[in-house]
């Protein structure tokens, strides 16, 4: 897996086109929109209905890792109080939500693209 391709949400097959057609807007409560297939190589992103159910668990793991990172930074490095650290975590959860959505789905696509198990 190429970390940069995942962060940029590129198609796993041709590695050129984007998986998502829009970035989404946090202020307008819009989630990023996904293309059904790759415009360049016709790779189908959603293998079957409910394919992205598992991406929820990837998203959970990402969020927990981010919360731990934010907590360590705010509490231990910047020396903020527990309450302020908590609100920093809440703020980071909101700000990183669209990124988590995109990255978790991309990781899920890449997991099944590289494995031998065909879905
Ligand atoms: Zn492609």
TrEMBL record:
Keyword Membrane in record: yes
Family matches, as InterPro entries: DUF983 (IPR009325)
Superkingdom assignment: Bacteria
Keywords: Membrane, Transmembrane, Transmembrane helix
Pfam families: DUF983 (PF06170)
Membrane-spanning residues: 50-69, 75-96
Protein name: DUF983 domain-containing protein
């Amino acid at each position: 897996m190429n970390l940069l391709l995942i962060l940029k949400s590129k198609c796993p097959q041709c590695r050129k086109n984007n998986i998502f057609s829009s970035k989404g807007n946090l202020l307008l409560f819009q989630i990023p929109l996904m293309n059904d297939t790759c415009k360049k190589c016709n790779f189908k992103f959603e293998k079957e209905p409910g394919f992205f159910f598992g991406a929820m668990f990837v998203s959970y793991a990402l969020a927990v890792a981010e919360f731990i990172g934010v907590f360590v930074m705010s509490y231990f490095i910047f020396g903020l109080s527990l309450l302020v650290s908590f609100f920093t975590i809440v703020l980071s959860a909101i700000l990183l939500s669209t990124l988590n959505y995109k990255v978790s789905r991309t990781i899920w696509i890449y997991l099944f693209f590289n494995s031998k198990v065909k879905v």
